[in-house]
Design goal:
Length: 192
């Protein structure tokens, strides 16, 4: 858990430095297929991969804006494989509450996405959170369909971020997460 948190922070720090000097950082992605079978090996894009990612991400942002959909579409357009949140992790950031956060498990951790058509325990965790923190009435069935899409867009709008119906790092950091009882805390406030 501590190593995973360290790796997330290190990746963010490297990306922040790269963006600060005008580069586009390629995401650290687990080698994973769209079916959810994953290994724990992280892909390290070559220089050509960096150029491919940068181009795909710029094109996706021009089409989809700055939200999580642009990130997802750039991954699909590049040679990097999409890492979906196939499970969830319980985190305790030290404030006395536990939060259930969609994750890809292993070294991929929380660097994962959810979109319409995906199913599994990661979607269940998101649905439960949307019900508890945003007053939605979703059936917690683990299927990301129209109702979950609409509920996620509601939460994105409430958080003041790009409303695109795709769950990714921007959404994870900015929406509120249920910690039990009536406790809902913004993702960035619990270290996401």
């Amino acid at each position: 858990m501590k190593f995973s948190r360290f790796m997330r922070r290190a990746t963010v720090a490297i990306a922040t430095v790269a963006i600060g000097v005008g580069l586009s950082a390629a995401p650290a992605m687990a080698a994973e297929s769209n079916t959810g079978a994953s290994s724990k090996e992280l892909l390290t894009p070559s220089a050509a991969g960096q150029v491919e990612w940068s181009s795909a991400f710029s094109q996706a942002q021009a089409t989809y804006g700055t939200g999580d959909k642009a990130y997802l579409e750039a991954m699909k357009a590049s040679s990097l494989l999409v890492t979906y949140c196939t499970t969830y992790d319980n985190i305790a950031p030290g404030n006395g509450y536990w939060y259930k956060i969609p994750s890809a498990g292993g070294t991929a951790g929380f660097s994962c996405v959810l979109e319409v058509g995906v199913s599994g325990n990661g979607v269940k965790a998101l649905q439960e959170n949307l019900n508890k923190c945003y007053g939605r009435s979703l059936t917690v069935d683990g299927a990301f369909g129209t109702a979950t899409y609409n509920a996620l867009m509601y939460a994105q709008s409430a958080a003041g971020i790009a409303v695109d119906g795709v769950y990714g790092s921007n959404t994870r950091k900015n929406i509120k997460w249920w910690g039990g009882g009536s406790v809902c805390t913004k993702g960035s406030s619990i270290g996401l």
